Amino acid sequence: VYVRDAGDAAALAAIERTLREAAGAAVRPLFVHADVCRDDLLVEIDASAGHPLEHLS
């Protein structure tokens, strides 16, 4: 999660709460203070997900 204003504690808490509500409690976000692609964005999220492989016998 890239955040433009990392000093805004209330915004960080809201972002993390919303992310956990959407993706589940097991999500492990990493917050980075960085410039994002466009000036009109305050937050940008890059994500990947996976699941255990099934072994076929």
From TrEMBL:
It comes from the Bacteria. This is Endoribonuclease L-PSP. It comes from Burkholderia territorii.
